[in-house]
Known about the structure:
Layout: H1 2-18, H2 24-66
Amino acid sequence: MNKIRNYFRESYHELVYKVSWPTWQELQSSTMVVLIATVVVTFMVWGMDAASNFVLTHYYEIFNKTR
């Protein structure tokens, strides 16, 4: 039981005295970076999906015509 209590005390001490919390401006800036990166990656994945769909659709059409 003493180990658990000690763990919580040390966790509290670390969060209060050792962690450097971001300012509101830093938090907003980081959020915008994550939002923009998410949108960019989403469009990249969508583009790759659309391209592979286009290629495979045409490949299967060609393959079915030769049979």
